[in-house]
Structure formats: structure tokens, C-alpha cells
């Protein structure tokens, strides 16, 4: 009987692991407010920090780590190499939205 499980999901929402990814449109706004002064979105040219075009297609980030969502989120949270940490400046939703936007570059 699958029907009761379906009703539970419909009535009470999906579990956290099934939460939708961030909103790239909202992430673009976060980028414009928090990141654009140091990073280019439309190129790989360096400003104060590296240009982020094609970020998720890179083999490695500037810190030498693989370009994975987890490592990019770690860079956002902890900063490093001149970048300030954003762990307490952005909430989890804003970070998810920002990462969704970065995936579009």
C-alpha cells in the first residue's frame, strides 16, 4: 500500500533530504550584493578574487581542492586566501541560492 505514504508526503511535506535546490535567480541577487565587488561572474578574469565563470567545470579551485558543491560551500563559509568568511553573513537559504547561481556561470 503506497497510498498512505504518498498522503503523508503531500500533507506533511517532503523530508529534508528531498528539499529542492537553491533558486539561481535569488542567488544572482546574493552575488550582486555580496560577491560582485571581488569576483567576475561573466569571465575568468581576476578582480580581487578569481573570476567565477565556469566554476563548477574547473578541475580545481584556487585553493587546490576539487570544484565540488561541498568544497565551494566550504570556501563561502570559511573564506581564505584574502576572502572573508561568509558563514555568519549569509543564511543557509542564501548560500543554496548562491550555489545554484554559481552553477549557471
Can you give the mean pLDDT? 86
Give a count of the beta strands, DSSP E runs of length 2 or more.
0
CATH first level: Mainly Alpha
How many strands, what sense, and barrel or not for the largest sheet? none
Strand content: under 5%
Question: What CATH architecture label applies?
Answer: Orthogonal Bundle
- Total number of distinct structural domains: 1
The CATH topology corresponds to Cytochrome Bc1 Complex, Chain D, domain 2
Number of helices, counting only DSSP H or I runs of 4 residues or more = 4
Shape by Cα distribution: globular
Radius of gyration from CA coordinates: 17 Å
| CATH level-four homologous superfamily name | Cytochrome c-like domain
Oligomeric nature of the chains = single chain
Please provide the ordered H/E string of secondary-structure elements. Answer: HHHH
**Helicity range:** 40-55%
- Spans of at least 5 consecutive residues with low confidence: 1-14
Distance between the termini: 44 Å
| Structural class by SSE content | mainly alpha
